[in-house]
Design brief:
Blueprint (H helix, E strand, L loop, with lengths): L3 H14 L11 H28 L4 H9 L5 H9 L5 H12 L1 H8 L1 H11 L2 H12 L8 E4 L15 E5 L4 E12 L6 E7 L9 E6 L6 E6 L10 E12 L7 H12 L8 H34 L1 E2 L2 E2 L4 H29 L8 H24 L9 H10 L8 H13 L5
Helix pairs in contact: 2-5, 2-6, 5-6, 5-10, 7-8, 7-10, 10-11, 10-12, 10-13, 11-12, 12-13, 12-14
Bound molecules: flavin-adenine dinucleotide.
Flavin-adenine dinucleotide binds next to strand 1, strand 3 and helix 14.
Length: about 425
Amino acid sequence: MTTAATDAPQVEEAIASDDTPPFSLELSQDQKDIRDWVHGFAENVVRPAAHEWDEREETPWPVIQEAAKIGLYGFEGMAQFFADPSGLTLPIVNEELFWGDAGIGLSIQGTGLAVAAIFGQGTPEQMGEWVPQCYGTVEEPKVAAFCASEPDAGSDVSALRTTAKYDDAKDEWVLNGQKAWATNGGIADVHVVIASVDRDLGSRGHAAFVIPPGTPGCEQGAKVLKHGLRASHTADVHLDDCRVPGSCLLGGKEKLDERLARVREGKQSKSQAAMQTFEATRPIVGAQAIGIARGAYEYSLGYAKERVQFGRPIIENQAIAFTLANMKMEIDAARLLVWRASWMGKTGQTFENAEGSMSKLKSGEVAVWVTERAMQILGGNGYTREFPVERMHRDAKIYDIFEGTAEIQRLVISRAISGVKIQ
Ligand SMILES: Cc1cc2nc3c(=O)[nH]c(=O)nc-3n(C[C@H](O)[C@H](O)[C@H](O)COP(=O)(O)OP(=O)(O)OC[C@H]3O[C@@H](n4cnc5c(N)ncnc54)[C@H](O)[C@@H]3O)c2cc1C
């Protein structure tokens, strides 16, 4: 029998030889610095502008420009956040920014969806060519759009009707169809469009295409008027005989042909264009929802300490204090799921139990619940547009819907845990 004392050197040796660092939730100094820097921008620039741009229901270009000036919006900033080997910097940046305001936050982060598609599916040359163009320059920032959804294909991506046909003679792809609810649709310089190259193959016949700036045949349709996130532009995009060079197919034609051949032979397809993009971005979307929830929680906590009824601050009532305790606990629980999924994604862990979907589902539901409770704590003021929690509640609701509705996330999770094709 060995004693604890004789085991100790062996344990130390094992730890020293193991590449895995000891478990820690302590953020690095770099992460803390970035968090504080983004928070400063959210507090001093974003939050004060939030009400105005929500009312105007327009893209806040001056705020995007300010973000570009300090390096928060742009290719270099994104590359720096993405490079963090723990995967936590990107959710931290999103949480802080959306703490400031979600509509403005999405105007700044919406480009990230198109960028994620180019990163996920493009060749190194395509990344080098298109990602910087998605952001434009500090002097003239641009935005990008990712267009998967269609009027008849939301949750059911396999139903999309937009087609891409290859014109061999000209080495061009010709796209036709209508995209719906595209964030930055029509005002973007670069659009990334998911289209079907073989409708018989459902989602396995999809591919992603870059539509370069100013391409004829790619036009904005109706602008969508929304319940929340009103500073973020959402619109239909029409593709009418929209011709793009062969090089705009993300990943290249050879890779696509190989993949389609595998699918036609009945083999497993390695990638499903739209689903890959969603998988990579779900924890980040969850972090945005947490930012909204935290903003509402902090505002209502401060209010509850100030507001006096029956001769005492309302927080002295357990009904209010316990609600705030639950709000804080739910936000922290959701953040841990987001950090786990982000870390898993960055370090190449397999999502055995749909942990990415779990993080987005939990965060969206927490944001809706917390912002609703925040309105309750503010009473009549909570229901007015004079106080920010009303806007935060409107903004939060979309997190139950886009990037996969709550029902679709539950479908993904239940299939992953059971191995059964739940309907
Ligand atoms: C503000 C905003 C921004 C957006 N940005 C983008 C963007 O940038 N790019 C993009 O491509 N799309 C975008 N979308 C579209 C968004 O992703 C879709 O709205 C979403 O995927 C849901 O699709 P749907 O609206 O067609 O709902 P449906 O698919 O019609 O769903 C309706 C209801 O039925 C439920 N349901 C559907 N199928 C099932 C099932 N099998 N089991 C149980 N319940 C089911 C859903 O959960 C939902 O409750 C955006 C939408 C909005 C509102």
